[in-house]
């Protein structure tokens, strides 16, 4: 299998049990997760040599984060140790018409304050086949944005394929700051992943799709996919298309453009959603695996969509499903019968 490197922040997620609200509980469940860490776990589940790059404190909470990655087969060799804190986010799971809610407490985390000297990106990218990052990482601090640039440069020097999930987070930065930072980084990207909001706020491309009303016509994306590929030279542009009927029922499919043709996946009706956090990351992980191992782009897309549909049935950030389970769903087995 391939060597896959991801760079980002793993955080301590504190969540009320079930669908309880923050204000009604006396304890929180501890869950580990974060965009690129979630992708690394997916890739490790599919048999790849997945390496997650970050910086964590040398105390026991930092070690707990390292252990969470190791538990699922992610290599932690390139994790720097030091700094003062692990980033935290609180996540309240919504239901029906009540949306989920996230509160960040991540300012000043170890990776947000990390220096270039903490990482030897030439060594990290040596022998790598793929490097993945998301727009969350440069959003957390200017220092993290610089780390992202240095990692991308090293990946390009080594001939590594680079993917980016745009992942705009309005609680971390403005669209002006996002575009100022993200657009120059696109020169390093081969595979760009992002939904309609990400494309508009990170790069300035707006599709004709009304997601709030649950309408996600793939035709509305084709113009911006072409424009993005033309401007930045992407090899592939992909997006999930989420139809949000409620917090616990979504339609789910995806679209990919290879510079010549568009491919649209089958659609899944996810009802009920157990935990949608990490859904996009599981799509990225599935797409990386598909593009590295499968015969054609259609197979890769169907695998990624099936993987991300399954993720939303699993509590927590990580997608804890096997390649065989994803292939079974992609092949049409969606009845949920007990496997004996």
What does this structure look like?
There is one protein chain. This protein is α/β, with parallel strands linked by helices and 340 residues long. The protein contains eleven helices and 15 strands. The chain has helices at residues 35-45, 60-71, 121-125, 136-140, 142-157, 175-185, 196-203, 219-232, 279-293, 297-311, 323-330, and strands spanning 3-7, 11-15, 29-33, 49-53, 55-56, 80-81, 88-92, 101-105, 130-134, 161-165, 191-193, 236-246, 249-257, 262-264, 268-270. The mean pLDDT is 94.
Task: Please specify the SSE layout and strand pairing.
Elements: E1 3-7, E2 11-15, E3 29-33, H1 35-45, E4 49-53, E5 55-56, H2 60-71, E6 80-81, E7 88-92, E8 101-105, H3 121-125, E9 130-134, H4 136-140, H5 142-157, E10 161-165, H6 175-185, E11 191-193, H7 196-203, H8 219-232, E12 236-246, E13 249-257, E14 262-264, E15 268-270, H9 279-293, H10 297-311, H11 323-330
Order of helices and strands: EEEHEEHEEEHEHHEHEHHEEEEHHH
The gross shape turns out to be globular
Count of separate DSSP helical elements: 11
Q: What's the end-to-end separation, in Å?
A: 29 Å
Tell me, rounded to a whole number, the average pLDDT.
Answer: 94
Low-pLDDT runs of 5+ residues are none
Q: Structural class from helices and strands?
A: alpha/beta
What profile does the largest beta sheet have?
Answer: 9 strands, mixed
| Helical content class | 25-40%
Total strand segments: 15
Rg computed from alpha carbons, rounded to a whole number of angstroms: 19 Å
Q: What fraction of the residues are assigned to beta strands by DSSP?
A: 15-25%
């Amino acid at each position: 299998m391939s060597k896959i490197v991801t760079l980002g922040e793993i955080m301590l997620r504190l969540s009320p049990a079930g669908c309880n609200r923050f204000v009604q509980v006396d304890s929180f469940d501890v869950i580990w997760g974060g965009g690129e860490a979630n992708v690394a776990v997916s890739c490790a589940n599919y048999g790849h040599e997945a390496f997650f790059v970050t910086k964590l404190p040398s105390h026991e909470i930092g070690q707990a984060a390292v252990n969470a990655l190791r538990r699922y087969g992610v290599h932690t060799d390139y994790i720097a140790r030091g700094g003062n804190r692990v980033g935290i986010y609180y996540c309240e799971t919504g239901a029906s018409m009540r949306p989920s809610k996230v509160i960040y407490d991540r300012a000043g985390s170890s990776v947000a304050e990390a220096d270039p000297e903490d990482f030897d990106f030439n060594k990290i990218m040596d022998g790598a086949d793929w490097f993945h990052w998301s727009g969350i990482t440069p959003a957390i601090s200017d220092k993290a944005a610089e780390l992202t640039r240095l990692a991308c440069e090293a990946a390009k020097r080594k001939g590594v394929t680079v993917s980016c999930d745009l992942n705009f987070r309005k609680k971390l930065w403005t669209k002006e700051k996002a575009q100022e930072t993200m657009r120059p980084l696109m020169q390093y990207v081969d595979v760009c992943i992002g939904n309609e909001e990400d494309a508009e706020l990170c790069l300035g491309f707006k599709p004709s799709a009304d997601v709030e009303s649950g309408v996600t016509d793939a035709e509305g994306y084709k113009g911006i996919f072409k424009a993005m590929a033309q401007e930045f030279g992407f090899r592939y542009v992909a997006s999930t298309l989420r139809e949000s009927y409620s917090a616990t029922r979504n339609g789910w499919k995806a679209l990919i453009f290879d510079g010549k043709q568009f491919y649209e996946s089958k659609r899944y009706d996810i009802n009920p959603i157990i935990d949608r956090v990490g859904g996009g990351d599981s799509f990225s992980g599935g797409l990386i695996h598909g593009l590295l191992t499968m015969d054609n782009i259609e197979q890769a897309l169907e695998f990624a969509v099936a993987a991300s549909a399954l993720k939303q049935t699993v509590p927590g950030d990580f997608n804890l499903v096997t390649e065989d389970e994803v292939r079974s769903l992609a092949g049409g087995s969606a009845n949920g019968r007990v496997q004996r």
